[in-house]
Amino acid sequence: MNEVFSQLFLGFQVALTPINIMWTTLGGVLGTIIGMLPGLGPATGVAVLLPLTFKMGPVGAMITMAGVYYGAMFGGSRASILLNTPGDGAAIATCFDGYPMTQKGRAEAALAMSAVASFIGGMIANVAMVFVAVPVAKFSLKFGPAEYTLLMLFALAATAAMSKEKILQGFIGMVFGLMISTIGLDGLTGVNRFTFNILELMGGIDFLIIIIGIYALGEVFKSFKSVHDPSYKMQTKFGKITFTKEDWKRSWPAILRSTPLGFFIGALPGAGGTMAALMAYNNEKNLSKHPEEFGKGAIEGLAAPEAANNASSVGALIPMMTLGIPGSGTTAVMLGALLMLGLQPGPLLFTKQPEVAWGMIASMFIGNFILLIVNMPMASILVRVLSVPAKVLYPLILGLAFIGTYAITNSVVDFFILIAFGLIGIFLDKAKIPTAPLILGGIVGSTMETSFRQALMLSDGSPKIFYGSTVTIVLIGLTIFSIAWPFVAGAIKSAKRARKA
Amino acid sequence: MKRITRILTAAALVAAVATPAFAQAKGYPSRTVECYAPGGAGGGWDLTIRTVSKTLTDTGLVKVAMPVENKSGGGGAVFLTALQSMKKKDNVLTVYSPPLLFININGTTPFSYKNTTPLARLITDFGAFVVRKDSKYTSISQVIEDLRKNPTSVKFGGNSAAGSMDHIQFLVVAKAAGLTGLKNIQFISFQDNAGAAQLLGGHIDMLSTGLGDVRGLVESGDLRVLASTAPVRPSFGVGKDVPTVREQGIPVDFLNWRGIFGPPEMPDYAVKFWRDAFAKMVKTPEWQKSCETNGWVQNYADQPEFLSFLETQNKLAREILSELGMAK
Amino acid sequence: MTWNMITGLVATLIGAAYGWSAWNLPRATFGNPTGHIVYPAILGALMTLLGLALVVKELLSKSPSKAKNSPKFGALTRHGKEIAIAIAASLCYALLFEPLGYVIATILYLGAVLFLVNGRVKVARTVIVAVAFSVGVYVLFSVLLGIQLPRMPILDI
């Protein structure tokens, strides 16, 4: 234990030099800005830095890239809250209650809570990184194909149960999402599925484009109705960026529950921030005493995914730092950059170059403080975007959606996909089909299918692999619980009501 | 077909002589050279072309800017198609490796290395067959023997799709060892580079990957390399302590080469300039240092040698993919 | 016809078409020949069943109280024309993006959409916003972030 503190002390000595504080600030602010733009997430942010890292040196490069990563988590939610346009995948769950809060005129509280929840999630995850990185990395290795299959199933089950009244529509959306995720080259057989001989589809459709299509384009198209409405008014008066005591009372348990969840999901290679945020949201909805308020501006429904996605960005660094394995798209780019700088991430990084590893960890504590301080005044400027007339703002969102899409793959083929999903977004809205199951289906679908097939290859076709380990049994239990719980909770509630009456 | 090619070649030669190439060559390159990575940022292609661009400009061998752009998709096929519309351009460079051959053979794209101007082979990584430190296997021959008895007895995987790098490099070795029925050997493909974690967690028995990709875990002793596909042991890095498949009696090697390519029908003055530039670049200490930090093995080959190398590699890949039924 | 009915019918159609094309995928030449087919085929079947279930449920629920829950079809037509124009403009944008380069294509596109929403009033604002956004984004991406955007064909900047 003492050793950990002395190492961390060394880290702070590195991180607190003026130049490294500058890199921390620069990375965090750049990440926040990149995160705000639709489509541009941490992976793009780190890629943008790639040519510069040569000049920064290993410590500076690590600190700056980590800053971009968690900075993007801070920034990603801004557009979700203000415009219903998620800045990146991890910010999508923030739309569900963040935007309704804005519509109710509570954008200031939403922005403040998002920054504070991000900060707390990030800080707790940093502490966890210092003390339990190695055991968490070891535990994450227990996740083989069978465990991944069940984890994805668990995530889906929770979502399906989310939309109780529209269960059929919810399932239709989910299956549609799963269908989309099958597009592309099947790694296990090398066969192209549903690509219509379009090369650009071979790698699958980036789900971020679908999210931007459904949310950003869909939102703008829908708005054509309201912008001509003479009674439509934009917000002109803005309050302080803060939230009430009541908000805090509702949010803090959600933040504390979502942080470990996000941290662990982040540490699993291939899971990531989007899944973490959506699972945290479902979780809170399931546990809430008033689940009917979710989706209508419940502040804890905003706090939970915000804490989870920041925690997941810290967790995602674990497989890279301790094993040298990239766990996400962003860490894959970071790993590439480190190799170019002559660093070898992996078990020996902490002993061979402690100043790099611990310097980065220490810088993340500092960075979180800086971002909290930077984000509050930034939010009070950003919130004024709501005073831009809708007739100007909405066309500009279209422009941002296209540029964001182009930044993801540099391909105009994706523009057509984007437009198609804008149309689908209108349909979903008109037909009142919940979007969350569709999105989650699309995100977990491909991993679920390949993991399932990989597991059966490993077991030579025996299903025993799905209930043969402790982890699988726990996951099965959680899945059953999450499907049954909303019904059980409902039954308890009505029983209580009956007794009162 | 062959005749048409010959006529076209002749026509191109005439055109090359006829155009005042000399005038254009003077002061070449005078404008920005566009470098493309056919895959995403941080990947192997991306790191190679970025290092090349940096080394050439840092050492002053090239005086103009060489910005790198990523054009990913279709395992490199998207950019290969785009490259066809850059025909005859003198300021476009890109990088490719063995998948350039695979995507043509398996029918992903009608274009092949013949629709580019290969300029030079620069580096190679080698295939590595890796197990956990406590694995019962100590040599690649033991793995082959087990597979001979029962083709599904060894659970092996990789980070590429079936029918690409990690899969093919093992089958090349298996075939050379006299194994038949390559189709029946299962290959478990992992996404997002999850293969090493799956191996560490004990979910698979063996991982087929690049020697450079598992350096950290091999140096720390968590993973053990059964064999590499290098022709001889490289003189530095993890490779120098790793036996080659040849040493274990299997007469074959497999190179994960990376080379620089220009667009089809790149003008002669440009080809000459770049061949010259790469020949000089590989001798600079800057380049040698970059190779060392990245764990790359220098394996320079000038255009003529590179072309004949591509031809033999293409034949080898076609044999394996045909046997899998994947060749189109 | 209600939206739920449409959803049910569309889902059935998508499910059938998807399932059918899944079934007709080329068989894998090694390993499990149908490994990549079973799952999409199941998804197709599931989607068809879900769609049919929604159709049946909708047919059965004729009572007025339930009909309120299901939004009526036809609400789209009121603003359908504007949406159609915006989508047509977006498609043109996608087609012209590379030939015209980012700046010109975006000025035209944003100009068109802004004009669509604002009409003849405030044309000056429309022009200023379109130009400022296009140039601003181009500078931010190409110059500051180093993300290459399609360049203008003649000027090559």
What is the compact description of this entry?
Chain A has helices spanning 2-15, 18-36, 42-83, 92-103, 107-140, 145-162, 167-181, 207-227, 245-267, 273-287, 300-315, 317-323, 329-340, 349-352, 354-382, 390-409, 413-430, 435-458, 470-500; strands at 184-186, 191-193.
What does this structure look like?
The complex is a heterotrimer of chains A (about 500), B (about 325) and C (about 160). In chain A, strands 1-2 form a two-stranded antiparallel ribbon. Chain A has helices at about 1-15, 20-35, 40-85, 90-105, 105-140, 145-160, 165-180, 205-225, 245-265, 275-285, 300-315, 315-325, 330-340, 350, 355-380, 390-410, 415-430, 435-460, 470-500; strands at about 185, 190-195. In chain A, strand 1 (about 185) and strand 2 form a beta hairpin. With about 500 residues, chain A is mainly α. In chain A, helix 5 packs parallel to helix 9, helix 8 crosses helix 17 and helix 9 (about 245-265) packs parallel to helix 11 (about 300-315). The longest helix of chain A has about 40 residues, at about 40-85. The relative contact order of chain A is 0.18. Chain A has a domain at about 1-140 and about 245-390. Chain B has about 325 residues and is an alpha/beta fold. Chain B folds into two domains: about 30-125 and about 255-325, D-Maltodextrin-Binding Protein, domain 2 (3-Layer(aba) Sandwich); about 125-240, Periplasmic binding protein-like II (D-Maltodextrin-Binding Protein, domain 2, 3-Layer(aba) Sandwich), CATH 3.40.190. In chain B, strands 1, 2, 3, 4, 5, 6, 7, 8, 9 and 10 form a ten-stranded mixed beta sheet that branches. Chain B starts with a helix and ends in a 5-residue tail after the last helix. The model of chain B is unreliable at about 1-25 (pLDDT under 50). Chain C is mainly alpha-helical. Chain C is built from six helices and no strands. Chain C is flat, with a radius of gyration of 24 Å. The N and C termini of chain C lie far apart (about 55 Å). The model of chain C has no long low-confidence stretch (mean pLDDT about 85). Classes of the chains: A mainly alpha (about 500), B alpha/beta (about 325), C mainly alpha (about 160). At the A-B interface, helix 3, helix 13 and helix 18 of A face helix 3, strand 2, helix 4, strand 6 and helix 8 of B.
